[in-house]
Here is the input.
Amino acid sequence: MQIHDLRNLIGQDLLLRVTKHHPLYHDIASELGELIVREKSGQNIHIEMDEDNNVTLHIHPILRPSRRDMFILYHEFGHVADRLNPSFGYSHQRRLRLNSAQESCFLTLWNVAIDTRLNQHGLFCLPQSGDIELVVDNIRYRLPKSDVNTYLLEAVANLSQRGVNRPGSLVTSIWNHPDRFLTFSDLLDLVP
Ligand SMILES: [Zn+2]
Here is the structure.
């Protein structure tokens, strides 16, 4: 893996720690071509991987990593870990066929499926402060981001707005069963 972090957003040792010792895949680093680190725009932290296993990470600068920063790194590379794992059965072709509502549902479910496993490894970490406004069943809530119920309800609200049936029990069931490995197909089957 060749790291290109032109603006020195994240220390190399930190990137190596997360990619060489990720709990969801034994050695991500040895599978990757280039790892490009770019500054995120707005709130949009995300990771992209091409068919030659080159990865671009869009993120904020991390000078002294907090537990939350570490979780964010493990989460983003959690997507890469699943994609590299043959048992997950990722298919970019199938994903490209999703419309934008379906893609949003898929990503929400995949995020929870990653986070529940990271939680099992003691790496899940919520923001320390701040509120979020959520609308569920036409009721507006203002809830603290530091509460795991807010995290789960945000996923539920997202799925409910996109027509997922009984999103509450779906999200709770994924969250409560970190040992049940959901494949790419399992996740797609949950998307309406
Ligand atoms: Zn994610």
User: Anything to note?
Assistant: The pocket of zinc ion is lined by residues 75, 79, 111 (CB under 6 Å).
